[in-house]
């Protein structure tokens, strides 16, 4: 039964937590995402498991799902989120390995991939 207050991040009172993005931040994300060709999304916008704090994540997920961009979802929580609201089929690729996805993008060799590489003599 957490109380909800929609305020700017810098105005969060002591003892309170920011558990979701608000309407202004949703608008900013949508503005930025409106012209992109690829979206790599790793991590929900808030505590999506609690309905009170899922609005930001849900709105962004639906917006990305409706876009023409290539959409890559990385991480178990984000994969769960898009599945929960029924937009998983609209995503281009979903990986439950969020940390591994980021490491691969950083150029690191993943152990499972390294074991598949054939060494030349």
How many beta-strand segments?
3
Oligomer: single chain
Task: Report mean pLDDT, rounded to a whole number.
Answer: 93
Binned, the helix content reads 25-40%
Low-confidence residue ranges: none
Apparent shape: elongated
The N- to C-terminal Cα distance equals 64 Å
Supply the CATH superfamily name.
Answer: Phosphoglycerate kinase, N-terminal domain
Write down the secondary-structure element order. HEHEHEHH
CATH architecture term: 3-Layer(aba) Sandwich
In CATH's first tier, which class applies?
Alpha Beta
Beta-strand fraction estimate: 5-15%
Count of discrete alpha- or pi-helical segments spanning 4 or more residues:
5
CA-atom Rg in angstroms: 17 Å
CATH topology: Rossmann fold
Largest sheet: 3 strands, parallel
Q: What order do the strands of the largest sheet run in, or round the barrel if closed?
A: 1-2-3
Q: How many structural domains in the coordinates?
A: 1
SS content category: alpha/beta
How would you describe what is shown here?
With 121 residues, this protein is an alpha/beta fold. The chain has one domain: Phosphoglycerate kinase, N-terminal domain (Rossmann fold). Helix content is 36%, strand content 11%. It is built from 5 helices and 3 strands, in the order αβαβαβαα. A 3-stranded parallel β-sheet has the order 1-2-3. Strand 2 (70-74), helix 3 and strand 3 (93-95) form a beta-alpha-beta unit. Helix 1 packs parallel to helix 2 (55-66). The protein is elongated. The mean pLDDT is 93.
